[in-house]
Design brief:
Layout: H1 3-8, E1 12-17, E2 22-25, H2 27-33, H3 37-40, H4 45-49, E3 50-51, H5 64-71, E4 75-83, E5 89-102, E6 105-113, H6 118-149, H7 154-165, E7 172-178, E8 184-193, E9 196-199, E10 205-207, H8 217-222, E11 228-230, H9 242-254, E12 258-265, E13 270-278, H10 290-324, E14 335-341, E15 352-358, E16 364-371, H11 376-395, H12 400-411, E17 420-429, E18 435-442, E19 448-450, E20 456-458, E21 463-464, E22 478-482, E23 487-491, H13 503-516, H14 522-533, E24 542-548
Parallel strand pairs: 18-21
Antiparallel strand pairs: 1-2, 1-6, 3-4, 4-5, 5-6, 7-8, 7-13, 8-9, 8-10, 11-12, 12-13, 14-24, 15-16, 16-17, 17-18, 18-22, 19-20, 19-23, 23-24
């Protein structure tokens, strides 16, 4: 369209390409929106101009202009809302029609003008706004349910709810939680500043106890009373409790002129309270805002209940798992350490385990194993197998393979969870201070030996099938004299398995990291190897046992 014809249009007008990007604007549009042509051209018209009646960004799914552009059709609206350069919101009628700007270049021409019947149009907008507000409310509640039910982490749930409510409903979100020992903690304070959410750690932290008789809004909410409105004026008088003092500070620091507070209730108890506050937004909260807030906190209560239950189960499971694992024996001349790392996303104990104990002839028995499963049954099976293994190793201290053969026969008839892998080893000091390792492997990842100079090798000898299959294959021992200052690593597959890479890749990753850490002290070696070698996408638990032999001249 020639520029001179574009300027002769008596209405404010701009043209967009087929993606909604403004390519031209006339002088009347520049004057109407108080923006220069440079501020228009190259911008997405919807993002730059289109708003709802409150000046908030309008979802693209509700943009009639965009729908007309996508369908290459002509459309008209009696009233829609657009923002000027100074932030003011304009109610305008519009007409959009397809237009060709050159050969093969399609787009649309948009005309904007004052409504013919402002009063009628305003009434229609009020009715439409009410309907759309209800749709927005339902959409917010649906999104809240989706966001909160997809995490079992309390802090993540709070941050997600804060992001859903600020700045959509408020300028501030404040979460006060009641701990499991009935103490109050201001867990999260978030504000909206220049388009981003900013956490305020200076306003977070421990809170005074909940007063039993206080009529103040937050105190009542933390006791489970109905949602209510609050303002700074309520806290101008002498505070009736420590919580009232903190609320005075909150209103002072945030500049909130209006707040809505609702209890967060779980299935059996009050879990805390949510405060939404307005400081920049001029309109105060009203009683009509409270039902939506209560709907949000009801969903938050269910999510926090589930998250707390998960954390409680996880702590119990981890405590149980650690109590099932033994203390390391003291072996003169040897350094020895062990680790157990629970599965990052599991709430139940697993079947990974390690063991080390002294034998009657002065040698040391070592074991690492993994019982199939990740639940209490696996943990119970692990305890059974470990205890039986100790008995068989004690009866046959000279040969790990003989002990494993007897164990294999027993687990088929006794163990709760018979399928398991393991490495069983006997470590004894020989002549001249050398340490000799005898071992048998029942379907387990091979031990890793790391020399002091960083050379590595996997001990693949003595390999046989896993326990509990009913196979009759003979098991054999492998034997190796460990070099001075070498490090032996026994581990379960949680340290090397990945959904994105092969097992060989995981073993190579373990080998390379172990080589780089060869001269670290044993505890530092173990911690660093666990954090560096374990794949990020592995959700299994890990049992880990490492030992280091002394210098040739320091056999102990």
């Amino acid at each position: 369209m020639p520029a001179e014809i574009f300027e002769e249009i008596t209405a404010a007008a701009f043209a967009v390409d087929d993606k909604g990007i403004i390519v031209a604007v006339n002088g009347r549009a520049e004057k109407l929106f108080q923006r220069t042509a440079n501020e228009f051209v190259g911008q997405d018209a919807h993002d730059l101009l289109h708003r709802d009646s409150h000046g908030h960004p309008l979802p693209r799914s509700r943009c009639g202009l965009r729908m007309a552009l996508l369908t290459n059709s002509t459309r008209h609206s009696e009233l829609d809302w657009f923002t000027r350069g100074d932030g003011a919101v304009l109610g305008l009628s519009w007409l959009i029609t397809p237009c060709e700007f050159g050969v093969g270049t399609l787009g649309a021409l948009v005309l904007l003008y004052q409504p013919e019947h402002p009063a009628d149009a305003r009434q229609a907008e009020v009715e439409a706004s009410t309907r759309l507000a209800e749709l927005d409310r339902l959409a917010l509640l649906a999104e809240t349910t989706t966001q909160l039910t997809s995490t079992l982490d309390v802090d993540a749930a709070l941050r997600r709810l804060a992001a859903l409510t600020v700045p959509r409903l408020a300028d501030w979100a404040v979460f006060d939680l009641i701990t499991e020992v009935d103490e109050v903690r201001r867990a999260l304070v978030v504000q909206h500043e220049e388009g981003v959410l900013i956490e305020r750690p200076d306003l977070q932290g421990p809170m005074p106890p909940v007063p039993q008789e206080s009529p103040m809004p937050l105190s009542r909410a933390l006791r489970g009373a109905a949602s209510t409105l609050a303002s700074p004026s309520m806290y101008h008088g002498p505070p009736d409790s420590g919580i009232a003092v903190e609320q005075q500070r909150l209103f002072s620091e945030t500049g909130m002129h209006s707040a809505a507070i609702a209890p967060i209730r779980g299935l059996r108890e009050v879990l805390g309270a949510l405060t939404l506050g307005r400081s920049r937004r001029a309109e105060p909260f009203t009683a009509s805002d409270l039902p939506l807030l209560e709907d949000l906190t009801r969903r938050a209560g269910l999510a926090l209940d589930n998250a707390r239950l998960y954390e409680r189960q996880r702590k119990v499971a981890e405590t149980m798992q650690r109590h099932l694992l033994p203390q390391m024996p003291t072996v003169p001349g040897l350094e020895m350490t062990a680790r157990y790392v629970p599965a990052p996303h599991a709430s139940q104990v697993g079947g990974d385990w390690y063991d080390a104990f002294s034998l009657s002839d002065g040698a040391t028995a070592l074991a690492i194993g993994d019982v199939v499963g990740h639940d209490l049954d696996a943990a119970g099976g692990m305890a059974q197998i470990r205890n039986m293994l100790r008995a068989f190793v004690w009866m046959h201290p000279e040969s790990p393979s003989v002990a494993v053969t007897h164990l294999d026969q027993a687990v088929m008839h006794i163990a709760q969870e018979p399928m398991a892998t393991m490495v069983v080893a006997r470590l004894a000091r020989g002549d001249y201070g050398c340490w000799t390792l005898h071992w048998a492997n029942a379907g387990h990842p091979p031990p890793l030996l790391v020399s002091d100079d960083g050379r590595t090798r996997f001990l693949t000898g003595g390999h046989g099938i896993l326990l509990g299959t009913g196979g009759q294959s003979a098991r054999t021992d492998a034997v190796l004299t460990l070099p001075p200052r070498s490090t032996l690593v026994l581990y379960t597959d949680g340290l090397i398995e990945s959904r994105r890479h092969t097992l060989d890749d995981g073993m190579d990753r373990l080998r390379r990291h172990a080589a780089s850490l060869a001269r670290r002290p044993l505890d530092s070696f173990s911690d660093s190897l666990l954090s560096q070698a374990r794949p990020d996408d592995n959700d299994d638990d890990v049992a880990f046992l490492a030992l280091r032999t002394p210098d040739q001249g320091h056999a102990g």
